[in-house]
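*** Query protein ***
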Amino acid sequence: MADRTDELPQAAQNYLEGKRLDEVECIISDLPGIARGKAVPASKFARQSYFHLPDSIFYQTITGGWGEAAGDDGFIERDMILKPDFSTASAAPWTGDWTLQVIHDAYDRDDVPIPFSPRNVLKRVVQLYHDKGWNPIVAPEMEFFLVAPNVDPAQGIKPMMGRSGRPAAARQAYSMTAVDEFGPVIDDIYDFAEHQGFEIDGITQEGGAGQLEINLRHGDPVKLADEVFYFKRLIREAALRHNCFATFMAKPIEDEPGSAMHIHHSITDIETGQNIFSGPQGGETDAFYQFIAGLQMHLPAGLAVMAPYVNSYRRYVKEQAAPINLEWARDNRTTGIRVPLSSPEARRVENRIAGMDCNPYLGIALSLACGYLGLTNQERPRRQFYGDAYEGEGDIPQVMGNALDLFDDATALHEVLGPEFARVYGIVKRAEYEEFLQVISPWEREHLLMNV
């Protein structure tokens, strides 16, 4: 590894300064966003330029089952070639030795990117923007809950015990006292993030019991997706140190708000560096309205990517800090598409639909794909909404099955994301949904067993 040290980000070099690297975790995101890969001794990693994993990791469902996503020649587990992206090298400071994580990209034997690898999907969409002379910029916001350990799935999830010895309180949004309750966990999150070279823009208490939000600095979509991918693991490890769980479920606790991954978007012209959402005099451009229109017109068909599980749809409830439709407005958090207050240079569009349970590569790719279609098709949005959007009607799918039906028919989105990705994703998610439908819930047993 010594001959590759100069290729590492500065934070990784600082982490290893004066230390002997023991191990390298070679990782890649699967469809749910779980880190898959191999841990190898540093000496072996220094001698290899790639390693192999079977492409079946992208056919695996969240429950460990398999979607029959192979082609006409049947289910064949082919080896992929995974190559390291050294710009992603990052510390794993929770380990007992000196370990680095490195995200890898997946290729086939002909050196063609695997089309259903989530990071490759996002890279494909970003390249489409670059081909038009545009540079997409995103800023994700991550919401999550710190909860009491839950080892029995039959039991409901409860808030964690705070520093005061009392359960985390709900409906205390932006309370600094509530944030202080989780102080030791937050301290470790900051420490881990510093070791990994991540810049946190802020941590706030959200409206749910034990619910926090972390904002990240805006930047390149692939880099920011890498950071969210890393952050999910980082936050879980910090929580485990303090006898609690961090969960990124969209709706972990009944009667509490859900957790979103809001995505802020802006686009600059590659040649001039100017924000294409703002004109020379600072006014809103056609591109600004076209991007909004793309979100309005195509997000319903892509919701199965941003809301990838049956639990995801429990988040879209009136008056619980999640949108129920795709109205757009300025400085209005009840709408699915929000235009925050900003200067013309920083003009951006916020997608409030995505859940924190989505794969960050795929959630960002899908959001950008919708905006791209709006731009290239020169679509027009509905009129700006005024008032409380919860008083209007919902216009997004309410159940996973309906969302999958829309996604299967969304050929325009498939062409942007990649038809082979769309095929594999649809089959895997359909397998998960059909498995869920076989489960009888406590509600059914309580209210139907003796009453119908």
The two ends are 67 Å apart (CA to CA). The mean pLDDT is 91. The longest strand covers residues 134-147.
